[in-house]
From TrEMBL:
Record-stated family: Belongs to the EXO84 family.
Pfam families assigned: Exo84_C, VPS51_Exo84_N
A GO cellular component entry from the record: exocyst
InterPro entries linked to this entry: Cullin_repeat-like_dom_sf (IPR016159), Exo84 (IPR033961), Exo84_C (IPR032403), Exo84_C_1 (IPR042561), Exo84_C_2 (IPR042560)
Swiss-Prot/TrEMBL GO biological process terms: exocytosis; Golgi to plasma membrane transport; intracellular protein localization; protein transport
Name listed for the protein in its UniProt record: (wild Malaysian banana) hypothetical protein
Residues in coiled coil: 173-228
UniProt entry keywords in alphabetical sequence: Coiled coil, Exocytosis, Protein transport, Transport
Domain of life: Eukaryota
Regions of compositional bias (Low complexity) in chain numbering: 1-15, 759-778
Cited Gene3D superfamilies: Exo84p, C-terminal helical domain, Exo84p, N-terminal helical domain
Domain Exocyst component Exo84 C-terminal: 162-366
Source lineage: Eukaryota, Viridiplantae, Streptophyta, Embryophyta, Tracheophyta
Residues in the signal sequence: none
């Protein structure tokens, strides 16, 4: 029975290794397909007549050294894949496996009880049978009985009979003196004697039955004595292992293992009594003291179990260890994590988790038991609560500072922390931000440093998503700082704080964009790199792991940067829309860009002074001023400044292109567009092309301007007049536009109205005007 039990118990767990924690099974079609492919690869190794030497000879006979190395790598990969497949196969039914193993152990205990009961019943039956024989013999002649009695009295008892008679007293002495090993040897000897006596019939039935009863009685007495000793708080170490081993030798392995684990639990409870969390105690200190006791107890129980039982009760040991880890997690959550999480103390919460995982990792380093997944699963809600509270604190603190921010860009305050990595585009230059943006970035850096050690909890996704939400909230504050930008609130995620200081000047408004662009393009992605496993690992030697991490993280980082940039685009569009509206409409609501301003020119043709319309002159002046400010404000990010100027020009041009009332009046109005109106309109568009070429005008918007010119000339042609014969020559438009540009920008002309022939812009613009007049397009 003992050997059968051992073989079944050993089959319930991997040999030489305690089963680790139960991971989730990965199902799905991909897993099944991979399993089929692996089964095909391993099929050759499963045949009964597989010969390793012949297989190696067949593969390596014609191979060179490089091919042999490749074969070795292939076999190693196949070995790892096979081990992983076996692990997944075991874990997929691990709960049922543990339940079945426990039922088998219980059944073995019941079978042992039945065996003892049957032994007692057998002894009783033999005793009754002997009594019947004696009664039948009593009917014989008295003379024969007297002879037998005299013979018995005359015969000396044998050594065996003497040993049987003295056996109970000897066991009593051994048990009283707690000489366990000798008592076990005596019981084993008696068991063998009973078996031998039954076969050779060297002992009478009565004596044999008495011996069996004595064996059962003292076996139970010794088991109870060992169990009582194992339950004593003073029993530990060698004594505990000896007691468990003795119980196992008595054939009661399940009870022995249960008592061993119970003893370790009682000792753990006793040691934990001196660890008392108080309101003034440090959460990390409490966690460290508690985890030291818990994982030391689990490690010692693991050592004792394997020392005495090997892997026979691996499943029970995993269940017991998991319960201890869960109880530990609940204590840490209640006395250390709860208060930190509620207050947004992410750093304190992270430190508690790190301490616990650190002690657990020391246990896992032995490669026999994994409990980290249990701890991480139970700690995750508290850590997420702390994370969300920390993000909320960043949002509220930034909003409070934005209410008093003057939107003037400055370098970081003296003593403030700065990133230890500088972008290649701004080497040696510290970031210039407004006060609220400096504070926002500083808190984000602290946040990423606190959450970085918690990568094992797979919080990266929720972390960056939460930070994106906070950044969107800050962008909302910047949009609200723009004058007359209330309509943008509907386009932002979440509520927006309206208590923010208005950016009155163009410089202040450009400062809003500088804050957003620098944070989104450089500072936040740089800070988020602290979430990368490569950053955490420092310098790793495994190039394959580096490549895997890079391939995994780069797409996620790119997608996150795109989301940040979309938030900045909302601020940029609000900025451009506000300035475009300021140009198009007056404070009284009058339209500065209406069809009437062109149609009415032919009614008032006296003493015209040709120049681009005021709205387009103001557009160029505004772009010129902003470009000058942006050159100092967007150092290293000139592309953003250029795109911003182009976007502002595009907003004005698209307004004109899509203004239905403007074109209805030009094309279908009661008064048609006259020669002077067309000339003014053509001059305005050529003015835009001239000042915007390569600086304020994108290719797409350039084409829109061309389309607008064609549409206006088509409307003029519909009146029956020829636009080419009406409009002045190309040089006239160039001269008027160039003089206006020089006057607004402050740059002097080369001569008295002479064209600057060496200017690339001048030559390109002149060619554009001439080409359009000749072919109808640029």
């Amino acid at each position: 029975m003992a050997s059968a039990k051992s073989s079944r118990s050993r089959a319930s767990a991997p040999s030489g290794q305690v089963a680790a924690g139960v991971p989730h099974a990965n199902g799905g079609g991909a897993g099944q397909e991979a399993g089929v492919q692996l089964a095909d690869k391993l099929k050759i190794f499963k045949t009964d007549n597989f010969d390793p030497d012949a297989y190696v000879q067949s593969k390596c006979q014609s191979m060179n050294e490089k091919e042999i190395k490749q074969l070795c790598n292939y076999l190693q990969d196949l070995k790892r894949a096979s081990a992983e497949e076996m692990r997944k196969s075991v874990y997929a039914n691990y709960a049922a496996f543990i339940r079945t193993s426990k039922e088998i152990s219980d059944l073995e205990g019941e079978l042992l009880s039945i065996k003892n009961l049957l032994g007692a019943q057998t002894g009783l039956i033999h005793g009754l049978a002997e009594g019947v024989n004696i009664d039948s013999l009593s009917a014989g002649s008295e003379s024969i009985r007297e002879n037998d009695i005299s013979n018995v009295e005359d015969r000396e008892p044998s050594d065996l009979e003497k040993w049987v008679e003295e056996f109970p007293d000897m066991l009593e002495v051994l048990l009283a003196e707690r000489r366990v090993d000798e008592a076990l040897d005596a019981l084993d000897e008696a068991e063998h004697l009973v078996i031998d006596a039954k076969q050779k019939q060297t002992v009478g039935t009565a004596e044999l039955s008495s011996l069996q009863n004595a064996i059962s009685e003292h076996r139970q007495k010794l088991a109870d004595q060992l169990a009582e000793a194992a339950c004593q708080s003073s029993t530990h170490g060698v004594e505990l292992r000896a007691a468990a081993a003795a119980l196992k030798r008595l054939g009661d392995g399940p009870r022995a293992h249960s008592l061993l684990l119970s003893a370790h639990y009682q000792r753990l409870q006793y040691n934990m009594q001196v660890i008392h969390p108080t309101s003034t105690s440090y959460g990390g200190a409490y966690t460290a003291a508690l985890s030291q006791q818990v994982f030391s107890a689990i490690g010692q129980a693991l050592n004792d179990s394997q020392s005495v039982f090997g892997d026979e009760y691996a499943s029970e040991l995993v269940i017991w260890s998991t319960k201890r880890a869960e109880a530990f997690s609940h204590l840490v959550k209640r006395h250390a994590l709860a208060s930190s999480a509620a207050a947004g103390g992410l750093r304190a919460a992270a430190e508690c988790v790190q301490i616990a995982i650190g002690h657990c990792s020391m246990l896992e380093a032995r490669g026999r038991l994994s409990l980290s997944s249990v701890l991480l699963k139970l700690f995750r809600p508290s850590v997420e609560q702390a994370l969300n509270a920390n993000l909320k604190r960043i949002e509220e603190s930034t909003a409070a500072l934005a209410a008093a921010d003057d939107w003037v860009l400055t370098y970081p305050p003296t003593g403030a922390r700065t990133s230890n990595r500088i972008s290649s585009t701004v080497v040696g230059i510290q970031p210039k931000l407004s006060s609220s943006a400096h504070r926002f970035y500083s808190m984000v850096q602290d946040f990423f440093e606190d959450v970085g050690p918690l990568l094992s909890m797979q919080l990266g996704g929720s972390t960056v998503d939460g930070l994106l939400k906070v950044f969107n909230s800050y962008i909302g504050l910047l949009i609200n700082a723009l004058p007359s930008s209330i309509e943008e609130e509907a386009n932002l995620d979440g509520p927006v704080n309206k208590l923010v200081r208005i950016a009155e000047t163009e410089t202040q408004q450009l400062g809003l964009l500088a804050n957003a662009s620098l944070l989104a393009e450089e500072l936040l992605p740089r800070a988020a790199m602290k979430l990368s496993p490569m950053y955490q690992a420092g310098g790793m030697d495994d190039s394959r792991r580096r490549g895997s991490d890079r391939n995994t993280r780069v797409p996620e980082q790119r997608e996150w940067k795109k989301k940040l940039q979309r938030s900045v685009d909302k601020l940029r569009d609000s900025f451009c829309r506000q300035h475009a509206l300021d140009l198009i409409f007056t404070e009284d609501g009058d339209n500065n860009l209406s069809a009437e301003m062109y149609i009415s020119m032919d009614l008032n043709s006296d003493e015209l002074e040709w120049a681009p319309s005021p709205i387009f002159q103001e557009l160029y002046a505004k772009l010129n001023r902003m470009a000058s400010v942006a050159s100092d404000m967007f150092v290293g990010r000139e592309r953003f400044a250029t795109l911003l100027m182009m976007r502002l020009t595009e907003t004005v041009i698209l307004w004109l292109s899509e203004d239905q009332s403007f074109w209805e009046e030009i094309e279908e109005g009661d008064r048609p567009l006259g020669p002077l109106g067309l000339q003014q309109f053509y001059l305005d568009m050529q003015f835009i092309i001239l000042f915007g070429k390569g600086r304020f005008l994108s290719r797409n918007v350039h084409q829109v301007v061309i389309d607008i010119i064609e549409r206006a000339m088509a409307a003029f042609s519909a009146t029956g007049m020829d636009p080419d014969s009406t409009l002045p020559n190309d040089d006239w438009f160039f001269e008027v536009a160039q003089e206006t540009i020089s006057r607004i920008s402050g740059r002097t002309r080369v001569g008295n109205g002479e064209r600057e022939t060496n200017s690339p812009t001048a030559s390109i613009s002149a060619q554009s005007i001439s080409s359009f007049r000749s072919h109808g397009s640029l």
